[in-house]
Amino acid sequence: MKIPFLRLYAMAYLLFLYAPILLLPLFAFNDATVISFPLKGFTTQWFAQMAENEALRKATLNSLLIATSSAVMATALGMFVARAATRFRFPGKGGVVGFIMLPLVLPEIIVSVSLLVVLLQLGVSLSAFTVILGHVLICTPYAAAILNTSFGALDRSLEEAAYDLGETKFSTFRLITLPLVMPGIISSLLISFTISLDEFIIAFFLAGAEPTLPTYIFSQLRFPKGIPMIMALGTVLVAMSVLLLTIAEYFRRRGVARTGIKDTGGFL
């Protein structure tokens, strides 16, 4: 009796969670400016309108620049964290790692306001650069969590064998460690990129006069005639996010298969 109930509950939960997302493409291809049923007809004009919008293109370029920079920096920092956590022992190690992972549990509104106050006190002008700083802060824990699994599953005897054969620490990392953890690095890059691209609260506080894609979407919600174009944009963003997460999961599983550890679950 419990199993059918749990299945029904799971189906109802997933429907509640994803039904709004499934409505995006319906209204994105609907030939009407009013978001309501019944649907009037099929059209692609909202996608064409989206492609011709200059402000949208500028916000998209800003978001892509910020997301790419944040992903690279967060992954690099995540590699340092994962390497230190899995290979070295030092006083206060647990506290240091916990402090780095703290943004995972802190409300973003608190992080955003704190960063805004600090940056203004330091005299730093709000721009895409300040958004990158904020996104690196929140993406680094995710990157560290992913890479910690990759580095933790790496057989230390491979590195020790390289040292015995005369390789330096740098050449061992470049020739042995880096190729083996590369699936985790790619997965970290894609996850960090997706998080940064979709993030709104930090960008809202720190973007200044350089809006990102989420802040641009928020600003357009005041104009009812622009809602169908936002639906089209949302459809593209959802499709892109699903694609990136699928690729990230592929590389995560590839890394698990290469190291031979037990798969305890991933993103999908």
From TrEMBL:
Residues 60-248 form the ABC transmembrane type-1 domain. InterPro entries: Bact_Polyamine_Transport (IPR051789), MetI-like (IPR000515), MetI-like_sf (IPR035906). Keywords: Cell membrane, Membrane, Transmembrane, Transmembrane helix, Transport. Its main location: membrane. The keyword Flavoprotein does not apply. It is found in: Cell membrane. Pfam families: BPD_transp_1 (PF00528). The chain crosses the membrane at residues 12-39, 59-82, 94-120, 126-147, 180-207, 227-248. SUPFAM superfamilies: MetI-like. One of its GO terms (cellular component) is plasma membrane. It is a multi-pass membrane protein. One of its GO terms (biological process) is transmembrane transport. Belongs to the binding-protein-dependent transport system permease family. CysTW subfamily. This is Spermidine/putrescine transport system permease protein. It comes from Phaeovulum vinaykumarii.
